Amino acid sequence: MENKKKFVKEKFASIAEKYDFLNTLLSFGIDRRWRRKAVENLCVQPGGNYLDFCAGTLPLSVAILKNVRDPIKVVSYDFCREMLVCGRQKHSKGNQPELIVGDGEKISFKDNSYDGAIVGFGIRNLANMDKGLSEVFRVLKSGSKLIVLDFSNKINPIIKPFYQFYLEKVMPLMGGIISGDRGAYRYLADSIESFPKPEGFKKKLLKAGFNHVYCIPLTFGIAYIHVGTKG
Ligand SMILES: C[S@@+](CC[C@H](N)C(=O)[O-])C[C@H]1O[C@@H](n2cnc3c(N)ncnc32)[C@H](O)[C@@H]1O
Questions:
Q1: Considering the entire predicted model, what is its pTM?
Q2: N or C terminus of the chain: which is more exposed, having fewer CB within 10 Å?
Q3: Superfamily name with CATH number, domain 2-153+196-230
């Protein structure tokens, strides 16, 4: 477990500067649409306090803050300082989230402190996913939602062979050339393939304590938005 944490932290630190560019390139820009939809599902309320968990370079934090006119608070939480710093450098205008460096398996906040939480392409990277989900559940207020946006391996069977080729061959190659760390993009493909199918992830959300759990497939099932409510 500790080995995975160290490995993941180092990989993200090494690709931090190229992360956003590669995301857009490798997803042909579709990730932006997915993120917008994930934020819509969070149903942000004026005056609310929101957690962007495994926030990385802040794309979701910024999308939440852009979406609202009324004052809200967004906390961007990640254990990789380099990712947060890159995000801050790229998004230095407009409303800013608060950045906190910390481990998602042991969140440094009190119980019942957030009106909602979102995690984009992050939960899959946790060494202990169940622990991370329980921690997010703990810090959410009763009635609040968790939105998880992540890749899936339950893909439309017609698309699957092409997608698999892209994931296993093209992405590590292109990601490796551009970021200089092929291992990071090989890891990305492996982590997507070993991520639970939507039904399996639903069980994890229920186990962590969430109710009203459902999911929304995106783009032939390449990604899913999972929703769970506390209480
Ligand atoms: C693929 S990036 C996602 C970044 C961003 N949320 C997005 O939508 O693009 C995954 C992030 O999860 C973070 N992460 C992985 N394990 C973590 C942990 N145990 N605690 C906190 N952050 C973690 C990594 O540092 C990385 O920034």
A1: 0.95
A2: N
A3: Vaccinia Virus protein VP39 (3.40.50.150)
